[in-house]
Design goal:
The chain has about 300 residues and is of the alpha/beta class. The protein contains 8 helices and 7 strands. The protein folds into 2 domains: about 210 residues, Vaccinia Virus protein VP39 (Rossmann fold); about 45 residues. The protein is elongated, with a radius of gyration of 27 Å. The chain binds S-adenosylmethionine.
Length: about 300
């Protein structure tokens, strides 16, 4: 929770036509926590979406940022008795929560050394939730350092990502947390085999399967086992050879049609392989150049949607 947030009163507010956040199981656990915790109303739906499938399982859950301890109790009740709940904080007073059966570690989440020492002690984890200091450096270092230690099928969730839009945190800047997540999107898409150049030097295409954006929360799902380059697949069923209409009635479609018609008319030149190859190459270059020009030109029509 960021310091600037105002705490809501007791009115049950529905998040639209659907279920109120107050009806979620995680909110009920939150309300039963014996110690204080401040959250945003939208978080409860996001938590359920991200974390429900881990309930009742033998998982290791880490929360960065403990403050008054309230969220540790919420997580313990939500995940159940088999879950190992670990809390991290910069404030040594957080050690107090060991009396309640939580594992507590003290350190600065912005320091890579802290994470290296931590994982050497606690081993790999299933879920890491960052509700620490919320600066971009803390958030980015936390994800980078934790990622190699999150098990396949696990996830990282970073909370209070609205700070990416706060002037006090440095907005506007290309180095905000949300800007950084766009680089991860590029990383994920660089698994597509038709893309020959790397989009970024970050090594996450082999571990981050998907990103999930909620209001103020971003989830990173880790699945190294299925982060592999894709390839075209066919279901093998019979085809009706329908014409592909994607360029119908467009400049590029007309160029394609006319150049195909010309190729058919000049088909007798197939007997002269050198000439035929030269003509075919000229056709390919022309169609590609016109296509690139055409698609770029059309993009201007989308400006109002950005
Ligand atoms: C928003 S509070 C956590 C609230 C708690 N998760 C809850 O829901 O009740 C943020 C906590 O992060 C801790 N924190 C701030 N900067 C930190 C850092 N660099 N490393 C580790 N913890 C930090 C603070 O000491 C504070 O306890």
């Amino acid at each position: 929770m960021s310091l600037s947030a105002k705490v809501e009163g007791n009115t049950a507010q529905s998040s639209g036509a659907g279920q109120s956040y107050k009806d979620t199981d995680i909110y009920k656990c939150y309300k039963r926590s014996p110690y204080s915790s401040i959250k945003h109303s939208s978080y409860f739906h996001a938590y359920e979406d991200l974390f429900s499938s881990y309930r009742g399982r033998d998982i290791t859950f880490v929360e960065v940022g403990i403050l008054n301890g309230g969220s540790l109790f919420m997580w313990r009740e939500f995940f159940g008795p088999k879950a190992r709940i670990i809390g991290l904080d910069f404030n040594p007073a957080a050690k107090r929560w060991e009396q309640d059966g939580f594992e507590i570690h003290i350190g600065d989440q912005a320091k890579p050394e802290f994470w290296q020492e931590l994982f050497a002690k606690i081993g790999n984890v299933d879920i890491l939730l960052d509700d620490g200091g919320h600066t971009f450096e803390q958030q980015i270092v936390t994800v980078c350092e934790a990622l190699p230690h999150v098990r396949d099928g696990g996830l990282i969730a970073v909370e209070d990502t609205h700070t990416s839009y706060f002037k006090d945190f440095g907005y506007p800047t290309p180095y905000s947390f949300i800007e950084w997540t766009k680089v991860i999107v590029d990383n994920i898409n660089s698994r597509f085999p038709g893309i020959n150049q790397p989009f970024s030097k970050l090594p996450y295409k082999d571990s981050v399967f998907s990103l999930h954006f909620y209001e103020s929360i971003v989830g990173f799902k880790i699945r190294r086992d299925i982060c592999v380059p894709s390839h075209p697949v066919s279901n093998g069923a019979p085809t009706r050879q329908h014409e592909d209409f994607r360029n119908k009635d467009s400049l590029i479609g007309t160029v394609e049609e006319r150049s195909n018609a010309l190729s058919r008319r000049l088909a007798f030149l197939r007997n002269m392989p050198f000439l035929w190859r030269t003509l075919s190459a000229a056709k390919r270059v022309t169609v590609t150049a016109v296509g690139r020009y055409y698609y770029k030109a059309r993009l201007r029509r989308l400006r109002h949607l950005f």
